[in-house]
Amino acid sequence: MIYDVVIIGSGPAGLSAGLYAARARMSTLIIEKEAAGGQIATTDEVANYPGSVENVTGPALVSRMVEQAEGFGAKRITDTIESVDVTGKVKILKGENEEYQAKSVIVATGAVPKHIGCPGEKELTGRGVSYCATCDGAFFEELEVFVVGGGDSAVEEAMYLTKFARKVTIVHRRDELRAAKSIQEKAFKNEKIDFLWNSVITDLKGDGLLETMTVKNVKTGEETEIHADEDDGTFGVFVFIGYDPANKLFEGLVEMENGYIVSDDNMKTSIPGVFAAGDNRVKSLRQVVTATADGAIAATQAEKYIEENFEE
Amino acid sequence: MIELNKENFEEEVLTAEGTVLVDFWSPSCEPCKALMPHVHELEEKHGDKIKFTSLDITKARRVAIGQKVMGLPVIAIYQNGERVDGVVGDEATTKSVKELIEKFC
């Protein structure tokens, strides 16, 4: 069958697009790679999405979005798209399991966490190095933890980790945080949180588990080795230094800027019938609230595009 | 899928003969929970060649750390009690888990 709209990605942008598309009675398929939700699925608390008051967790918000989109008739499927042919009138998406055809495509593939890029990082992932506090926080009960980054995610996740860790040190390459002021205030008040300013991690070492890291002061160039407490044997490094757009599929096909898809106010990309929504496009604010807005606009524009380009 | 805990980990994994898969997970690990149904599917297909087990790390944190597991998800393969292969973190996808399991069939 040829779907009216196929959405790649099931984070807030994709689910919102699915909800709007299905509600407009378009045949709608949402393709998700692994789990629904994207980055937000591993976020403990979503305090800045309007209406999500009283400790709404990321997973709770996502499951409501899924329920709502499916309630209007959007179909969800798990598959990994491996290649696309989107230049023709009917767009073809080749997945690991199946091939899909669509009149319009909404690319809501989101972004993936950036890595530090230092020696030892890859080998020690899951052995002390982590990118997901809700997944791995419990391992670090009564241990010491370092959080890399200075934005909202880094500081919020650092606070979440104080539930488990004995001490949490935020390692930031500047001398002040970039996180929202209200989040900063909470962090400065938290007795378990300490700061290492003007610092970056340049090396991670350990036999089996993370044992030693090298921290470089970017102002003085001085390098310091930090070892795990002898009784602990290990410590944690949680990395929240931003995200890379997940646009590999569309490289060389649609116009991009620094890896992000260029789209207009109507989420249109450089290819007719292909729309972008969420963290993977050029924009100034990447949040759940802007992702869902993108999704709604993309779906509405996809409907318009189909009306204009396909006869009944 | 055999549920592991502090008491039976040694018997089911470390002193077990043959190939054992251990799915390390926790209730707050969304990527782990997303993988779980795929692992169950693979168990139905290959359960005769590999013993499928899972360990909720919140119930046996020390056991997991003893196995050098300090991050999730981890799908590990043990042969005669030795960890011989596995996928960790972002690398644990439906595809990589399938490939991992097929290597040992």
Tell me about this structure.
With 312 residues, chain A is an alpha/beta fold. Chain A has 2 domains: 2-112 and 243-309, 3-Layer(bba) Sandwich (FAD/NAD(P)-binding domain), CATH 3.50.50; 129-239, FAD/NAD(P)-binding domain (3-Layer(bba) Sandwich). Helix content of chain A is 23%, strand content 28%. Chain A is built from 6 helices and 19 strands. Chain A has helices at 12-23, 58-71, 133-136, 152-161, 181-189, 288-309; strands spanning 2-8, 28-32, 75-78, 81-85, 91-95, 99-107, 111-113, 129-130, 144-148, 167-171, 193-196, 199-205, 212-217, 223-227, 236-239, 243-245, 256-257, 260-261, 274-276. In chain A, the strands form 5 sheets. In chain A, strands 1, 2, 3, 4, 5, 6 and 19 form a 7-stranded mixed β-sheet that branches. A 5-stranded parallel β-sheet of chain A has the order 8-15-9-10-11. Chain A has a 3-stranded antiparallel β-sheet with strand order 12-13-14, with no helix packed on it. In chain A, strand 9, helix 4 (152-161) and strand 10 form a beta-alpha-beta unit. The longest helix of chain A has 22 residues, at 288-309. The two termini of chain A are 15 Å apart. By secondary structure, chain B is of the alpha/beta class. Chain B has one domain (2-103): Glutaredoxin (3-Layer(aba) Sandwich), CATH 3.40.30.10. Chain B has helices at residues 9-14, 30-46, 61-66, 94-103, and strands at 2-4, 19-25, 51-56, 74-79, 82-88. A 5-stranded mixed β-sheet of chain B has the order 1-3-2-4-5. In chain B, strand 2 (19-25), helix 2 (30-46) and strand 3 form a beta-alpha-beta unit. In chain B, helix 2 packs parallel to helix 4 (94-103). The longest helix of chain B has 17 residues, at 30-46. Chain B starts with a strand and ends with a helix. The relative contact order of chain B is 0.23. The model of chain B has no long low-confidence stretch (mean pLDDT 95). Chain A binds chain B through residues 33-37, 41-42, 58-59, 78, 80, 96, 112, 125-132, 134-141, 208-210, 234, 236, and chain B through 26, 28-35, 57-58, 61, 64-65, 68-74, 88-90, 93-95.
